[in-house]
Structure formats: structure tokens, C-alpha cells
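Friendly challenge for the regulars: who can give me the C-alpha cells for this chain first? No prize, just bragging rights.
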Amino acid sequence: MSGAILTISSRNYSSWSLRGWLLCKMAGLEFDEVQADLDSPEMRQELLLLSPSVLVPRLTNEGVTVWDTLAIAEYLAEIRPKAGLWPADMVARAHCRAVSGEMHSGFANLRSALPMNLKARHKTFKIFSGARPDVERIKTIWRECLDTYGGPYLFGQHPTVADAMYAPVCTRFRTYAVELEPALAAYCETIFSWPLMTEWEEGALAEPDEIVELEVEF
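First reply, four minutes later:
Bragging rights claimed.
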């Protein structure tokens, strides 16, 4: 194995792995993909949100090792500046960084109440009250971005870091039947039809592992 290596955990459950993988693909980086051992205590702690540090995804490239999704995004933007991971316009770029950072550091209640599970579909799902403000805030972010930049992605015609950051949220909203107004539902459909997302989901559906603690019952 040579060249860049991206270490991920579960395709079905790991929203951070999805984000890092999307960013590498968007940057046009050629890399080998390695899946961490899901039976290891460290991986299970991270997937179950019990670990304060997230060490996957982890990108190793040309002697550099970088983890943390936003750090990976910034590194890729430096080595692949023509990939357009951030918007070219300074004002839009600042906005993109702000909403990406908000996703990166916030929405803890959403993460715990609606864990990512690409294989699951609930026709109805009662969201506990603590997560509802997170859902509404994300809807507001999407609405403002789509209204400002015209869609179909959050910052216009092409996907950016923000779309990689919010793509797992689209899957959560689909899994747990979160009601969306037409413009926001259309944004999610844009994400689901994104060839990179299609490729990731195909891998997730083929993944044999099941983590019982993340199979939400209702």
C-alpha cells in the first residue's frame, strides 16, 4: 500500500468517516481506504459518542498525518487549492467556514438522539425535546444558505466543505422521517443523488457489521 491512506470506521454509522471521505474525494486525492477494527473499544467508544477525541477519519499523506474533519478539510484545501473545497468569494468563504464549524462543534443532542444509520428507515419517529432546537437550527442554516447562494448545494452550483459536513444530517433526517419544507427536501435529494454519496451508501449497505447500541428502537 502506497500513497495517501484514509482510515475510517463504519460506513453505515460513522458520520465523521463519511465527511472525511467526501472531502478527500472532492479534493481529487488518490488514496487507499483502511477500515479500523469496529470491535476495538476505542472505535466503539467513538461511534457511541463516549470518547472526547475522534481519531477517525485519519488521513496520512506524504509524511503528514491529520485527523479531525475540519483539519483534514483545511489540509486538503492547502494541497489542492483548485479543488474549490471552500467558496472563492471571501464573504461566502467566511460564511461556509462558520456553518461548517457550527456543525463540527455543535448539535450534540441531534447526534445522540438521531444516530446515523444508513440502512434504517422509520416511517415515524418522535424526536425528544432536547434535539428539536438542533433540528430547527440546521433547517435555518440550510434555508439561509440556499436563499443566499441559490442552490442546489449550500453555497451554489458546486459542493463545498459545508455540504460534506451536512451530508450525514440529510441521511439522519431521512432515517428518522424528519419533516422538511420543499426547498430543504430538494437539498437533501441533491445530496442523495450526488455520485459520491451514492458510492458511499453502496458500501454502507454491503457492510455486514451491526452495532446493536446504535439500532434505535421506538
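DSSP finds nine helices and four strands in the chain. The first strand starts at residue 4 and ends at 8. Your move, everyone else.
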